[in-house]
Amino acid sequence: MSTFLGMPSPLRGEQSFPKASVKELANGQLRRNLQKATSTIRAKRAAVVAEVPDWEELRDAGAAIKADVMARLPELLEQFEAAVTARGGVVHWASDAAEANAIVTELVRATGSDEVIKVKSMATQEIGLNEHLEAEGIAPIETDLAELIVQLGHDKPSHILVPAIHRNRTEILDIFRREMPDVPADLTDEPRRLAMAARAHLRRKFLSVPVAVSGANFGIAETGTLTVVESEGNGRMCLTLPQTLITVMGIEKLLPSYADLEVFLQLLPRSSTGERMNPYTSLWTGVTPGDGPQEFHVVLLDNGRTNALADQVGRAALHCIRCSACLNVCPVYERTGGHAYGSVYPGPIGAVLTPQLTGMQGHDDPSASLPYASTLCGACYDVCPVKIDIPALLVELRARAVETDAAERRLPTGWAAAMKAAAWVMANDRRFAVAEKASRVGRVVARDGSFHRLPPPLNAWTGSRDLPAPPAQSFREWWAEREAGREGEREGGGDTG
Amino acid sequence: MKPIMDQARVRAAMLARIREARDQGAAGAVEVPRDYHRTGSLTPAEVVDLLIDRLVDYKADVLTAQPDSLSATVLQALSPSTSVVVADGLPAGLTEALAAAGLQVTVDGDEHALTAVQLDRIDAVVTTAALAIADNGVIVLDAGPGQGRRIISLVPDLHVVVLRRSQVLQTVPEAVARLVHDGGETRPTTWIAGPSATSDIELNRVEGVHGPRTLRVVIVDDEGDQAQGDQGEQQADQRQLGHAGDAGDLAAEHGTGRGPGVEGDAGPG
Hints:
By secondary structure, chain A is an alpha/beta fold.
C-alpha cells in the first residue's frame, strides 16, 4: 500500500485513522485519562441539559439559524464587514491558511512586538499560526491553561474544548517542572496548585505584551459584534489589556442578529463544559475609545469552508459551534483520543468536517479514512446542540470515498467484486438457500467455531477480525422447521378444543 | 491602518467563491422556529432566590442589603482589602462611604485612566451591573454607569458587584431583549458567571485563575421597596460566605495576602 504524498497539515495527519489509532490504543495511560474525563463531562452535560425544559426548541432554533446563515452567507459577511468598519475595526479576507498567517504576521510586526498573547482558538490552530509566527521570529504565548500545557509539552491538542484532556495531573506537573522557568519549587500535582502556577507565569505577560490574537465563537452580522466564550479570564485579559487585538474567525461563525445570542449562549455552555454558563463571555464591537484595544482587526478565514458549503449535504458540518459534546459521547473517540484523527478537529464532527475542508484525495489520503472512524451509533447526533446529523454525513462521505476510489481504479477491487456477487446471491431466495448450504462446507476447517485466518483474497477480512464458522443449521432452516412444528401443534390443539 | 496584501482582489475572489458555493445548495432566508421560552414564570422573589442559588453553586459569595445598609454591606464584602478601584456612577454616597471607612479609593475615569500595572496593585473593585439572569446565574456588565472600563473589573483579585433586585431577570431571552432595548448591543459587554475558573486538569473545576479569584454579589432592595428583604433572609445569605474560607486558604498558601480573611467574614470559614 502506498502512502499519501500530500503535505501533512494541522488538518491532515500522516497516517490513516486505523493506523494512527493502533498506536494510540496501545497507550493505557491515555485511555484511562480519556475514560475518566469523558465520563465526567458526559454526566455534567446530561444534568444541566435535563434542567432546561425547552432544550429541544432551542436546538431547533439553533439548527435553523445556522442553516439561514449558510443560505445568506455572502450577504451576511458583507453586512458584518460594514458594521465592523463603521465601529473602527479593520476587516481582512483570507482564502487559505497561508494568507491568514501572512496577514496576522504583518499586523503583529506593525506593533513592534516580538511576542503575542493568544486566546485558545481552533481557527488559529487550523492554520498553524503558532508555527508560522515562530518561524517569523515572533513568540506566540498560549494563555489558556490546557493550550499552555500542550505548548509547553511540545505536544498536539487532542480535544476541541480541553486540548490537554489526554494528560493527567502528574504528567502536567512534570511538564511545568521541565518547561516553566519560574515554576514554584514546591509545586505539587494538585489541580489548584498547578492552575495557580500558570496564573503567576502568565500574569506578567498579560500586563506587558501589547498585541493579542483570538478566535471568535460568534460574529454578529447586524452589529459587527464579536463574542468569545471562556472560563479562566485569560480571554478577557487578551481581549482587554493589549493595545492591538487581532481576531481570526472562520466565515461560518456568523449569526444574523444580536438577539440570536439568546439561543447560542444557552446551547453552547451546557453542551461544551456541562455548566449552566461558562464564567466569562466577552462581547465587543470594533473599537471603544478609552476601553480595551484601540486597534482591532478581524481576519475572515475560508480555508476550505467553501468546499463544504458547496455540498448540499456536507454544508451542515459548517453549523458546528465547536462545543465538543460529540467527542465526549463518542465510543471511538473515548478509546483512541484525538491524536489518531490527525486533524485539529477530532471526534465525530472532525470526521465529517476535516475531509470536507481538505478534500479527499484518493484512497491513501488520511482524510479519506476519517468517515470510517465511527460505529454510526448516533450518540453524537443526540447531543449536538445544532442537530447536525453526523451519522448521515459520515455515511454520505463514505459513499463519496468509495466512488472516488472506484473512479481511480480500472479493475474492481476484491471487495467490490465480492459485494456484487453477494448482492446477486441475496437478491434471490433460492440462490440464497443454496449458498447457505454450500457455506456449511467451511465448518470442516473452522477451529473453536471461528475462522482465524482465511486464504487470500479472503484474508483481507480475517486480517483484522475472526469470522464465525457457519452454523450447522441456518436461521432460515430453523425458522421453517419451527413453523412446520407449530402448524402441527395448532392442528392437534383443534382436536381437543 | 489599511488592509494588507491585495485585499480587494482576495475579497472579491473569496466572495465570488462563497456565492457560487452557496448557490449550489438552498439559498434564501430560512424560517427560524422560535418556540423556546422567552419569559419565565417565577415571581420576582423566586427569581432572586434562583439567582442566589446559581451564584452560590459557582462559588460566588452573596450578601443582601437594604438601601440604608448598602455601604456597610459593601464594606463587609470588601474585607480584608485595603485598596479599591471604582468608576463614576456607583449608588449615591457609596464611594464616599468606602473612603470614610479608611479604604484607599481610586476613581478610574476618562481623566484618570489607570494602567494594568497600576490596577494590579489594587486589591478590589466595586461595580454595578446592567442586569442579572437567574436561570444561568449570569451578571452582565455593559460599561454603563458605575461599571467603568472592562479592565477595572478584570485585573483586581476581588470583584464586588452591587445589584438591585429589580435588575434580576429570569431568562436569557429576557436579558438579551433588555440589552437590545437599552441600546447595549455595541457596548463592550461581559457576562460573568462566578469567579474565573478552569477545568483543564482532568476536568476538575478550580475556581480562580486569571480573572478575579473572588466574586461577591451584593443584592440590594430597590429604593422604596424595603419590605422585600427581611432579617432571616439576610442571615441565610451570609451563611453562604462560608465559601470565602476556601479562597482565603488559597491566598494564604500563595502568600498574596489578598484573599478574604476569615475574621472579616460573617461565615464560619
